[in-house]
Amino acid sequence: GSKATVSVLNCRSHAHCPTMVRACALALLALGAAANDNGLGQTPPRGWRSWNLYGANVNQSLIEGVMDGMVKRTRLVNGKPTSLCDLGYCDVGLDDNWQACGDKRAAPGMHYHDADGKPIVNTVRFPSLKAMTDHAHGLNLTSGWYGNNCICADMCRTEEECDKQIKGDVAALREFNFDAVKLDGCGGETNLELYNKYVKESGRAVMTENCHWGSKVPFKPDPSLPPAEGCPWNFYRSSGDVRASYASIMYNLGTVEPLRTQNLSYPGCWAYPDMLQVGCAHGPGGASDPGLSAAEARTHFGAWAIVSSPLTLSHDVNNDTLVDQIWDLITNTEVLEVNAAYVGDSGGVFKRSGKAVELTDAHILRTGEAAVSAPSFTYYAKPMGGGRVAVLLLNSGGATETLTVNFADVPNVVCTSCAVRDLWGHKDVGVFKTSYSVDVASHDAAFLVIKSA
C-alpha cells in the first residue's frame, strides 16, 4: 500500500505529463486509497437535503412533496424534458428534527433514545418514516436520514451506552429502509468505524456522510489504514456549516484545498464543504442567510463542481418562480460533467492573487467574527481526461476584472495554441495562443474547458 500511496501523492508534480497523470489515476484506482469499500460514491454524490432552507421546520408531507418535485419533467435541459433525478440528483435527505425530543420513553439522561438504544421518532411530524422511504423508492429515488443529532443531542456517556445507541440507530435505519445517512458531530455517537461495521453487518450498503465539520475526530481519511478504518464513510465535511452569503461560501470553499493537496479527496471518499446554498435565501439563519446574487450562485455552484464536492441542493423544488431563476445553473450538464470527472486529481487551486480582499456579511457583523480574507482572484483547474482541462477563474474583488490565464500555468495543459470553451454559455469561444483573457464581474466566475486546438 505505501508505494502506491506515494505514487498518488506525487501526481501533481508531473503536471505537464499526461502519461504520468493517467498512471497516477490508475495507481489510485488500484490502491482503493482507503475509500469506503461499500462501493458507493464513486463520483461525487448528488441529491437534496432539508437543512439549508427548512432547518428544523420539516415534516413528512414536506419531504414527500420534495420527492415528487425531484422527478417532475416539466422543464427542459438541452431541449429535452428532464427531472433533477435524471441528472443524478436522486437522493432526498431528511436532516435534523425528526426525533421526539424529551419523550417520556427516553432513557434517563437521554432525549430521544430509549433504554434499549432505539431512537424515538416524532410521529406527529413523521407518522411513518417507512412510508416516506417507500414513497421515495416508488419514484426511483433514494432516501437519506440523519443521525447523531444536534437538536436535543444525546451524549451517550459510556462505551457500552454509545454502542447500544449506534446499534439502535443502525437497526432503525434498516427498519425504515433508508439508503443514505448523514452523521453529525453533536451527540456522543462519533465512532464512525463502529457505525460502518454495524451497517455492513446489516447487509446493505448505505451512502454515508461524515459531518464532523472538518474538526471533530474522525474528520478526514487516513489512506494508510484499511478502508473500513481509513474512510468508513463516502464523503466528509471539510468545514463548519455554510451560510447563504458570499463570505461564507468562500470560507468553506477554502477548506477543501488543504485536503486536495494531500490527495485526500477521491472516489468513495470525497471532501465536502457542505450543502449548496443556491436558491436558499433566508433559511434557518434568518438574517445570517441573506442569499446569493445570480453571479454568486454561479460562482458557488461552479466552485463546488470543480473541486469534486458532492452537490446537495436544498431549495424549494416546487417553487416555480425560484426554480426558473436557478434551473439553467443547477442543470448545466457540462458543469456536472466536470464535477463527475476524476483523473487522479479532485481539482483545486493553481494560481492566486497576491492581493487579499475582506469579505463580510450580516452574521459576521452581528457576531463580531473576523471577516473572511480571500485572494482577489483565484484560479482552479481539474483534469477531465482526453486532453481536456476545466478551469474556473473566480473574482472575489469588488469590481469587474480582466482575468488572464496563461496556458503554461495550467496543470495538465500541454498546448500553446488552445481551444477554449465557455461552459456557462455552452459555446466555443475560439482558439488562442499562449493565454486567454476574459472580463469577470465581481463575485462571478468564468468556467472554461481548455484543450489542444
**Fraction of residues in helices?**
25-40%
From the spread of the alpha carbons, the general shape counts as globular
Unreliable parts: 1-32
How large is the count of helical segments?
Answer: 14
The average pLDDT score comes to 93
Largest sheet: 8 strands, parallel
What is the number of strand segments? 20
Radius of gyration: 22 Å
Spatial separation of the terminal alpha carbons: 39 Å
Strand order within the widest beta sheet: 9-8-7-6-5-4-1-10
- Structural class by secondary-structure content: alpha/beta
Question: Strand-residue fraction?
Answer: 15-25%
Describe the structure.
This protein is of the alpha/beta class and 453 residues long. It has 14 helices and 20 strands. An eight-stranded parallel beta sheet has the order 9-8-7-6-5-4-1-10. α5 (129-138) links the parallel β4 (91-93) and β5. α4 (60-70) runs parallel beside α5.
Q: How would you describe this structure in keywords?
A:
6-stranded antiparallel sheet, alpha/beta, globular, 22% strand, 453 residues, 14 helices, 8-stranded parallel sheet
Write the layout of secondary structure elements.
Elements (H helix, E strand, L loop, with lengths): L1 H8 L8 H14 L14 E4 L1 H4 L5 H11 L4 E3 L2 E3 L8 E3 L35 H10 L3 E6 L11 H18 L3 E5 L7 H10 L5 E5 L15 H4 L4 E3 L8 H9 L2 H4 L9 E3 L21 H13 L4 E3 L6 H11 L2 H8 L7 E5 L3 E4 L2 H6 L4 E4 L1 E9 L2 E8 L5 E6 L10 E6 L4 E7 L1 E6 L4 E8 L1
Parallel strand pairs: 1-4, 1-10, 4-5, 5-6, 6-7, 7-8, 8-9
Antiparallel strand pairs: 2-3, 11-14, 12-13, 14-15, 15-20, 16-19, 17-18, 17-20
